[in-house]
Write a structure and sequence with these properties.
Pfam family, one: DUF5776
CATH architecture of the largest domain: 3-Layer(aba) Sandwich
Protein name: LamG-like jellyroll fold domain-containing protein
Keywords: Disulfide bond, Signal
Number of strands: 67
CATH class of the largest domain: Alpha Beta
Number of domains: 6
Strand content: 35-45%
Radius of gyration: 37 Å
InterPro entries: Alkaline_phosphatase_core_sf, ConA-like_dom_sf, DUF5776, EF_Hand_1_Ca_BS, LamG-like, Phosphodiest/P_Trfase
C-alpha cells in the first residue's frame, strides 16, 4: 500500500494487495534502434526519457534509463488496433527503470510525464493500478484509482490527484504536468485538459530504502513493484520541463495517428437486477443494476428504464455508479427510473460488480398490513444506445428476468413494532387479544446489536500498558510518561468501567482487513473457508461474495441468518471502506448498506438509531477507517497515531449518547472491536502481536461492567450477535461466545445498581409470594419465568386489579404473565401455592422477568429471590403460644410496624421500620409466637438503634416481610454485599484468617455448618464465612 493522504479507495489495503514477483534477467539498453514512432516532420518537444518498444525490447531512446529490468513476464508484441510494437502487461508483470539522484534533480522544478496506453476491460478496476509511476509516501505517476485515470503528484506536503473516468479498451494518451511556477498539477487526456489541482510547493520524491526506480506497467515498492496494470503500453516519456497545452495536443494527435479506426461494431448487451428477495415494510431496499457487453464493440452510451409499482416502492437515491458521473439515474416518474451510462462496458461476469454494476439503487418499501406479505417486482423497460452520438438501431439487449421481492408486514401481535413479541405487546394488546399475545411472548434482554469496528485500531484501551514506537517497530510499554500520550479519557472509562473488555483478543490471520471482515460477518476464520471464498482486499473490492449465484449458501453472513430467523426485523451496515458492503456482505442479503464518509460512520449510526427504522432493526454494523488510514500514512502506534486516536472519544460518545437519549441503551448490546493492528506503515506482514493483538469489548444491560475478559477472535463476532438475539448459530459458523463471564444472569443484575423496577420472590415450603416494586413507569403487565424446583402448582392467587393472562408449566419452568388494571402497590402481585406432596428440598426462584408499560416499553427488571422456612399466616402449632422459636434472629425485608401489643381492636404502633437495602434490614430476636383474632404475631426484642432499642414489642408474622437472619439451608451461590466486604476463615473457630473478599464477589457454597453456636457457610474452596444475610445475598 502506498500511504497517500488523499487516496481513499485503498485505506484498508495491506500486504496481500501488493503483487511483488521476482525479477527475471535485466535488459541492458544498446544503441537506440530507429523508430517511426515520432515522424521527423513533426515539431515535437524533446523528452528527457523516451521509452519505445520498436526494437522488440524496451529501450530508452534518449539513453537516460541505462537498464530496464523485467518483473514477471511482460511481452513486447503487436496489436491489430495500432501500428508498431507495444508492451503487454497481464497484471503480474512490469518493467523496472533504475534511476539516479541526478535524474531526479532534473524533475524537481517542473516536469511532465506521458503514456500512450490501452487498459484492458478484463483487468481490475478496484484499488490502484499504475501505468508509469514511481511512488511511495511521495513521488509521481500515471495510473488508475479505481475506475478513474489519475495523475498522482506529491506536491506541497500531500498528494494532488487530478483524475477523470477511465475508458477501457481504448487507446488513451495521458499527460501529467507539474507546473511549479503556476502552482498547478494538471491531467490531459487525448490532448485535452480534463482536471487540474492547486499545488503550491515542492515535489516530494518517493520514500524508501530501495525505491529509486520508475516502473512501467505498475508502481515502485521497496521490494520491487506493485499496483500492476492489465493492458498495453505503446510509449512512455518523461520531460524535465512543463509541456504547454499546444505541445500536448500535438503529442496526442501524433500518437493517435497510429491507431486503426475500423468500421464501428454495435455490440450486444446483457443486463440483470441483483438484490435481496425480502424486505421489511417501511425499510430501505438496495438493488444492484448490472450490464455487461457480449463482446467488444463501439457502443459508448447505453440507456434503459427500470420500473416498479409506485404503490410498493418509492425512489430514495442511486449511488456507487460505474464511472462516477458517467452513469446517471433519474426518476422520470413515480415507479420509473432512467439509467444512462457512457462508462466503459466490460465482458466480465455479473459477479464482477466492479466492472458490470452500473448503479446501486435504493428504494423505500411501503408498509404493508400487519401479518401479511406482498409480492413486488422490479424489471427492465426499453433500452437505447449510441455510438459517437449516433443512435443505434436494432440494439440487442438480453435481460435476465426480473427481481421479485417479498415485502413483510410486522407480525400481527407485534403491537409495539419492535419485531419481537414480548411484555410490551401484552401491555398494548386489546383485552380480547392479551392471552393470544402472552402465549407467544418471550423475554429478550436485547432487541438490537450494534457492532462498531475500528479499522487498524489494534489494542488501544488497556489501562496497564500500550504499544508505542518512535520508529517502525512498536513495543509494549508500561511507562507512565509514554502512556500519557494516550489522551482518550471517555473511551478509557467506557471500555474499562462500563463495558467488559478483552485486551488479549486477536485478529484472524493474516491480519488484513478483508480476511477479518469475512471472519466477523460470516462467523468462521478466513483460513478455514474453501479457497474460492477466501476473498482479499483486492477481490472484495471487485467481486461479490463467492456464494453469488449458488443455489445454497455455504457460508451465509450473519445478516442472512438473522433475516431467515425473523423476516420482520431488518439490518443495516455503514462502512467507510466499501468492500465490506459490496464484496463481503452478500448482494442478496436483506440489509440496508450505506457507504460513509471518512470519520462520519459513527454519526451515520447515531442518526440511524434516532430513526423509526431502528426500532425493528436487529443488527447495525459499522466500520470506521480513519485509524487504518492514519497507520498507512504515517505509521502505527507512534505519536501521530495516538494523537489521531484521541478523535475517537467524541465518535464513540456520539453513538452512546444517542442510545441513552432514545432509551435503546437498555435493549442494545454494543460490540466494539478492531480488525487488526499494524507496525511501520503496514500490517499483515507477519503474525506479531502489534499486527494481531486487538481489543474486543461488550456493553449492555446484562454485561458485567468493568469485567476483564480473556481471549476472543474476530471470528467470534457473529456468535456474539446471534447469542444476544437468541438466534441459533448455523453449522457453517465455528465462532463462539469466547468468554461467557461477560454476561450476568438476570438474578445477578442487582449488582449493577440500575434504576429499574424489581421483582422479589419469597419462597417457603408450600408457597411463593411474588412482589413487584414499581417506579416511575406505569406498568401494565409482568412476564416471568419461575423455576418451580420440582414442585407442582396447586393454584395461583392474585389481588384485586391483577389478572393472570398466562400460566403454563413446561420442563419445570412456570411462564406466568400478569396484567394490571392499576399500578402494583404494597401487596404481592401473586401468591403461588404448591401441592403438599411436592419436593421441597430445592428453592423456588424467579429466573427471568420483563415488565411492560402503558406505552409498550419493556423493562428488564432486577430480580430478588429469598427463602424462609415459615409459610405465610401458618402458626407452627394450634396453640396460642409457641416457645421453640425463642432466640431466633430475624430480619424485616419490607416495611413493618413495631407494636406495643398484639391484642385489641386497633393494636398501637410504637414505630415503623421502612424497607431498606439488605445490608440494613432491621433485626429482631423472637421471644415467642402469639396467635389471636388479629392473626399470628411474634413477640420480639428490638435489636436496632433508636428509641425502641432493646424494647419488647410485637411484629406481624408475615413471611413476605420477614426472613431468618442466617441461612437455614445452603444456597448454591452467594454474592458479598457488605459494604467493606468480609473475611473468610480456614477453620470453624474462626481463628485462622483466610482471604478478604471484596463486595459484589460471587462465591460458590458447598454446605451450611453450625459450630460454636454460629451458622457458617463453607465455600467450595473449603474456607468459611458467616451465614448472616446482612453480609451476603443468595444467588441462583
Amino acid at each position: 500500500m502506498k500511504p497517500r493522504v488523499l487516496a481513499s479507495v485503498l485505506l484498508c489495503s495491506a500486504t496481500l494487495l501488493s503483487t511483488t514477483v521476482p525479477a527475471v534477467a535485466a535488459v541492458t539498453t544498446a544503441t537506440p534502434a530507429p523508430t517511426n514512432q515520432i515522424p521527423s516532420k513533426q515539431l515535437l518537444p524533446t523528452p528527457f526519457s523516451n521509452i519505445s518498444f520498436e526494437s522488440g525490447q524496451p529501450v530508452d531512446n534518449n539513453g537516460q534509463f541505462k537498464t530496464v529490468t523485467p518483473t514477471g513476464a511482460p511481452k513486447v508484441t503487436t496489436d491489430e488496433s495500432i501500428d508498431g510494437k507495444v508492451a503487454a502487461f497481464n497484471g503480474k508483470s512490469a518493467y523496472q527503470l533504475p534511476s539516479t539522484d541526478a535524474q531526479y534533480d532534473k524533475l524537481k522544478n517542473g516536469m511532465s510525464i506521458e503514456a500512450f496506453f490501452k487498459y484492458d476491460s478484463k483487468g481490475s478496476l478496484s484499488g490502484e493500478h499504475d501505468i508509469f509511476s514511481n511512488q511511495q509516501s511521495g513521488g509521481l505517476g500515471l495510473g488508475l484509482d479505481g475506475s478513474k485515470l489519475t495523475f498522482y503528484a506529491h506536491v506541497g506536503g500531500s498528494y494532488k490527484q487530478p483524475s477523470t473516468p477511465l475508458k477501457t479498451d481504448k487507446w488513451l494518451h495521458a499527460v501529467g504536468v507539474i507546473d511549479k511556477s503556476a502552482g498547478k498539477v494538471n491531467l490531459y487526456v487525448n490532448g485535452k485538459l480534463v482536471d487540474s489541482k492547486d499545488a503550491k510547493g515542492d515535489l516530494k520524491l518517493a520514500q524508501g530504502s530501495n525505491i529509486k526506480h520508475f516502473v512501467l506497467g505498475g508502481d515502485s515498492s521497496n521490494s520491487g513493484v506493485e499496483s500492476l496494470m492489465t493492458g498495453l503500453v505503446k510509449s512512455a516519456r518523461l520531460y524535465d520541463h512543463v509541456l504547454s497545452a499546444d505541445e500536448i495536443k500535438t503529442l496526442s494527435d501524433t500518437a493517435q495517428a497510429a491507431v486503426h479506426h475500423d468500421k464501428q461494431v454495435a455490440q450486444s448487451f446483457e443486463s440483470r437486477l441483483v438484490g435481496a428477495g425480502n424486505i421489511v415494510g417501511g425499510h430501505t431496499y438496495s438493488l444492484n443494476v448490472h450490464t455487461r457487453q457480449m463482446g467488444k464493440g463501439d457502443i459508448d452510451q447505453l440507456g434503459y428504464e427500470v420500473t416498479y409499482d409506485p404503490n410498493q416502492f418509492s425512489f430514495v437515491k442511486a449511488d456507487q455508479t460505474l464511472g462516477g458521473k458517467l452513469t446517471t439515474v433519474t426518476e422520470t416518474k413515480p415507479g420509473q427510473l432512467h439509467i444512462t451510462s457512457s462508462a466503459s462496458f466490460s465482458e466480465a461476469g455479473f459477479r464482477d460488480f466492479g466492472k458490470t454494476r452500473l448503479a446501486r439503487i435504493k428504494l423505500r418499501a411501503k408498509t404493508v398490513q400487519a401479518g401479511t406479505t406482498e409480492q413486488a417486482t422490479v424489471k427492465f423497460g426499453s433500452a437505447t444506445a449510441s455510438m459517437d452520438g449516433t443512435p443505434v438501431t436494432g440494439l440487442k439487449m438480453q435481460t435476465d428476468g426480473q427481481q421479485t421481492v417479498t415485502i413483510h408486514g410486522m407480525a400481527t401481535l407485534d403491537y409495539n413494532g419492535d419485531g419481537i413479541i414480548g411484555a410490551g405487546d401484552v401491555a398494548l394488546a386489546p383485552a380480547d387479544k392479551k392471552t393470544e399475545v402472552a402465549k407467544q411472548a418471550v423475554i429478550r434482554p436485547y432487541k438490537h446489536v450494534i457492532v462498531l469496528t475500528t479499522d487498524g485500531g489494534g489494542n488501544p484501551w488497556d489501562p496497564k500498558g500500550m504499544y508505542y514506537t518512535t520508529g517502525s517497530d512498536p513495543k509494549w510499554t508500561t511507562d507512565p510518561a509514554i502512556m500519557a500520550k494516550r489522551k482518550n479519557t471517555y473511551t478509557m472509562d467506557l471500555f474499562n468501567k462500563q463495558f467488559a473488555m478483552s485486551t488479549s483478543a486477536h485478529s484472524v490471520l493474516p491480519a488484513i482487513s478483508a480476511q477479518n471482515y469475512l471472519s466477523m460477518l460470516h462467523g468462521l476464520p478466513w483460513g478455514t473457508m474453501d479457497k474460492e471464498y477466501q476473498a482479499t482486499n483486492s477481490t472484495a473490492g471487485e467481486n461479490y461474495f463467492a456464494d453469488f449465484d449458488k443455489p445454497t449458501a455455504k457460508y451465509p453472513s450473519v445478516f442472512k441468518v438473522l433475516q431467515q430467523a425473523n423476516p420482520t426485523q431488518s439490518a443495516a451496515a455503514f462502512a467507510e471502506w466499501t468492500p465490506i458492503l459490496n464484496g463481503i456482505t452478500e448482494p442478496d442479503a436483506a440489509v440496508n448498506t450505506q457507504p460513509s464518509e471518512s470519520l462520519k460512520s459513527f454519526d451515520d449510526v447515531a442518526n440511524y438509531i434516532g430513526t423509526d427504522d431502528f426500532k425493528n432493526t436487529a443488527l447495525t454494523y459499522m466500520q470506521s477507517d480513519y485509524m487504518d488510514h492514519t497507520g498507512h500514512s504515517r505509521g502505527w502506534y507512534n505519536d501521530n497515531y495516538w494523537n489521531e486516536y484521541a478523535k475517537y472519544d467524541k465518535l464513540f460518545k456520539t453513538v452512546m449518547d444517542k442510545l441513552e437519549a432514545t432509551g435503546h441503551i437498555h435493549d442494545t448490546l454494543v460490540i466494539a472491536n478492531a480488525d487488526h493492528g499494524g507496525k511501520g506503515t503496514n500490517h499483515g506482514q507477519d503474525a506479531t502481536e502489534t499486527n494481531t493483538n486487538i481489543f474486543m469489548a461488550l456493553g449492555g444491560e446484562t454485561v458485567d461492567s468493568g469485567h476483564r475478559l480473556e481471549g476472543g477472535s474476530n471470528a467470534d463476532v457473529s456468535s456474539l450477535i446471534l447469542n444476544a438475539l437468541h438466534v441459533a448459530q448455523p453449522n457453517s459458523m465455528t465462532g463462539k461466545v469466547f468468554d461467557s463471564s461477560a454476561f450476568l444472569d438476570q438474578t445477578d443484575l442487582v449488582k449493577k445498581n440500575r434504576n429499574v423496577e424489581n421483582i422479589k420472590l419469597t419462597s417457603t415450603p408450600n408457597y411463593a409470594q411474588v412482589h413487584l416494586s414499581a417506579k416511575d413507569q406505569q406498568l401494565k403487565t409482568a412476564d416471568m419465568r419461575i423455576d418451580l424446583a420440582g414442585r407442582s402448582v396447586a393454584n395461583v392467587q392474585t389481588p384485586t386489579g391483577t389478572k393472570i393472562i398466562r400460566q403454563t408449566v413446561e420442563n419445570g419452568i412456570m411462564a406466568l404473565t400478569l396484567g394490571f388494571d392499576q399500578q402494583p402497590g404494597a401487596d404481592d402481585v401473586a401468591t403461588i401455592k404448591f401441592k403438599s406432596d411436592a419436593e421441597q428440598t430445592k428453592t423456588v426462584k424467579v429466573t427471568d422477568a420483563m415488565v411492560g408499560t402503558d406505552t409498550g416499553k419493556e423493562i428488564l427488571v432486577d430480580l430478588h429471590n429469598e427463602q424462609t422456612t415459615t409459610d405465610p399466616q401458618q402458626p407452627d402449632t394450634p396453640d396460642n403460644t409457641n416457645d421453640h422459636l425463642r432466640g431466633t434472629e430475624i430480619y424485616a425485608t419490607r416495611t413493618i410496624g413495631f407494636y406495643k401489643q398484639a391484642s385489641g381492636r386497633h393494636p398501637r404502633v410504637s414505630r415503623w421500620y421502612e424497607s431498606k437495602f439488605q445490608t440494613k434490614w432491621p433485626k429482631f430476636t423472637i421471644i415467642k409466637q402469639v396467635k389471636n383474632r388479629n392473626g399470628v404475631w411474634y413477640q420480639v426484642r428490638d435489636n436496632n438503634h433508636g428509641r425502641t432499642h432493646n424494647k419488647i414489642g410485637y411484629i406481624k408474622a408475615n413471611s413476605r416481610a420477614l426472613t431468618t437472619a442466617y441461612y437455614t439451608s445452603a444456597p448454591h451461590r452467594v454474592m458479598v454485599i457488605a459494604k467493606k466486604g468480609l473475611t473468610s476463615y480456614r477453620d470453624t473457630n474462626q481463628n485462622r484468617r483466610g482471604n478478604h473478599i471484596r463486595r459484589f464477589t460471587s462465591l460458590r457454597v458447598a454446605r451450611i455448618v453450625k459450630a460454636n453456636q454460629q451458622v457458617l457457610l463453607q465455600l467450595s474452596n473449603g474456607q468459611y464465612i458467616t451465614a448472616d444475610k446482612h453480609m451476603t445475598k443468595a444467588l441462583r
